[in-house]
Design goal:
The complex is a heterodimer of chains A (355) and B (121).
Chain A: E1 2-7, E2 10-17, E3 20-23, E4 32-41, E5 44-54, E6 58-64, E7 71-74, E8 91-97, E9 105-110, E10 113-117, E11 125-126, H1 128-131, E12 148-153, E13 159-163, E14 167-171, E15 179-180, E16 201-206, E17 214-218, E18 222-225, E19 233-234, E20 244-250, E21 258-263, E22 277-280, E23 288-290, E24 307-312, E25 315-321, E26 327-330, E27 338-341, E28 347-353
Antiparallel strand pairs in A: 1-2, 1-28, 2-3, 4-5, 5-6, 8-9, 9-10, 10-11, 12-13, 13-14, 14-15, 16-17, 17-18, 18-19, 20-21, 21-22, 22-23, 24-25, 25-26, 26-27
Chain B: E1 2-6, E2 20-24, H1 31-41, H2 43-49, E3 60-64, E4 67-68, E5 84-89, E6 105-108
Parallel strand pairs in B: 1-5
Antiparallel strand pairs in B: 1-2, 3-4, 3-5
Classes of the chains: A mainly beta (355), B alpha+beta (121).
Amino acid sequence: MRLAIGTRKGLWLATRDGRGWALSQPLQDMAEFASVAWMPRPGAPPRLLAGARSWFWGPAVRSSEDGGLTWTEPEAGSIAFPADTGAALERVWTLEPDPFDPDVVWAGAEPHALWRSADGGVTFTLVRGLWDHPHRAHWMGGAGGPALHNVHRRADGWTFVAMTGAGVYRSPDGAASWEPANRGISADFLPDSDPEYGQCVHRIAIDSADPHRLYAQNHGGVFRSDDSGDHWHDISTGLPESAFGFVVLAHPTRGDSLWVIPIRAETMFPADGRLRAWFSADAGATWQEQGDGLPDGFFAVVLRDAAHVVPYGNDAALAFGTRNGLVFASLDGGASFEEVARGLPDVLSLRIWPE
Amino acid sequence: MSVRVVLPRALAEYADGCRDVTIDVAPGAPLSEVLHELAAAYPALGRRIVDETGAVRRFVNVYVGTDECRLLEGMATPVPEGAVVSVIGSIAGGAAGHGGGEVAWSLQESPGRRSRRGCDR
């Protein structure tokens, strides 16, 4: 098992063998890595993609065919806004290989934009249907910036995205046309707390058994939709107070099962300084705290793209990194966690390769 | 006329290892033309200096002679015959994530790029 770990300053790999976890030297230059992805390639090692951003020299998407030893990018660049947009790419917040097309990779970016690559993540094209959406002028940025940070594809061709200061948008037609899908998700930072759009949904997930069931970790509260986003309702009861957070992960093989990592909105720390995952096996009706191997006296957060889950054995492996440079992994569905790394810069992104 | 462009060490890898390149532009050309020609010859270098809107990146300073272009006429600053254009990362040593490039990686050559003159010094 390998973890790609993107941080505020550098990219690392962690590898687990029979003796435990081993951490690489820092890979890549000292840029920020807000996004990483493993792209499966039949008959070949996975391609590792990284959304890099130098504070001086700007953003780029780079790829590695050899597990991160060497990297390449097109000389003309991998991703840039067309001239007519008048926009400049600030940061690639997420890279998501399409689960149904081995050549396609999606990128979510700041400012709010969705990109599609048809060549395995080498070059990206702006998804104009979302860029040209009439709501765009009303979308806002949060503390991290105005970003599209989460992309999900469904087998029937529907695409769902989550955006800072805009909320959930969905496309039923292969990412051509887009509509907001936020009814029921609260926006307690707006005068109208139940707007059509403008929510600050931090991350969404699709249930592995019922593809019409979605989960959302909102700016305040965790929500569920059973109708592809037509309606949402709060499933926060039983979670620590305020149910703020950035992470929601659906179990990759078990329906109705999901994790969140709550923090207190007032302090941006976990309640009582206890870093815990919270798991539900009944679609959010009840929650169980999971903390074996996770620390107390913890005063940081886990960011939205810094957590990942994959099928593993007869359960799941999940891993996450923290803004104070810790990385944890569980190979038993969250029943216990191992410390993978400490002392890294702020972890911004993390993806598991299970082999 | 020929304009000498001096690059920081971190950007030399995008200019065939050169820290000092010469760009040919029309006499009296503005800075925008110099940077445009630089990007045409070295696309990976160009987009690290100027973003896709044509603006010099926030933490990059471009000097014409001894003055930073933002204190002159910006991209419209005339570049006199014999002037040196210097590209310098701004003072951001305490900024999170700052840094240059030290680790091996490569560029996939752009088929339409302009011919290059190579290092001058």
